[in-house]
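Entry for the shared binder. Reason: the reviewer on the internal report wants the predicted structure included alongside the sequence.
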Amino acid sequence: MSATTTRASRFVMVNGIKTHYTESASNGPVILGMHGGGHGSSGEAGLGRLFELLGDRYRVIGLDSVGAYGQTDPVPLRYGLQSRVDHAAAFADTLCLDHFSIMGNSQGAWAAARYAITHPDRVDNVVLLSSLTIGAALGIPLPQTEGMKLLQSYDGTREAMLRLMQGLCARPEVITDDLVDLRQAAATRPGAMEAFGASDKSIAAVRSSPVLFADFDMRVTLPALSKLIPTVFIWGESDIFAPPALGRQLEGMLPDVKFHWLENAGHQAQTDQPEKVAAIIDALIKSP
């Protein structure tokens, strides 16, 4: 696996929203990545070394979502997480991505799965990583985890961002100054904190709406999707945001999804164990 693959920072207008994304230089099969929902999340921060480990043979694209993430215009989510899916769908159309594999971490795992559910003709494979949000979409009551407490305690300071990253990752050595600074800059740029707060309220409103919740619910659609499209779920054994016990529940509810349990990995298994995550993705895409 290459460790020298270059990647580029790019902008594109998507339905009037200046949208940032990071992509590798390869012209191979496309992998579209959806980052998690924590302060300062982005395609670059969320995919990290996967650009290097997969980018020599795949066109790896990390989208900065609406909702105040990365360098995309800090537009609040209007219809909860569905707004992230709608933005991703318009982004894929803008870049003329006809067929691709889609992956997502945490909140982004729900967005990736939802895109595949609504666009099954365009998705070749689905890669999901540790997700409380998918647990909620499958009807599991969500615990107030230590990781969620860290997320809620973020106050805009670099010290709080460092604590958040220490909760997201199980291996301290992967939390570099550059990674902390990248997320901190995204989280505190003008308008980001306000848009993030408004987005949280929108997500909560959708989940409490008897009408809009129907689009959030995946109790029927995700099991059906995994029968149609090859799907894997990767979970860190040391995850304090989405406990492995919840993942084990999901494993029993999704018999057609292959679960991979990674030791010494937290909520961002792709940051803690990028080589192992890259190997899982490689095997999925290459399988007949």
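Summary line for the report: The mean pLDDT is 96.
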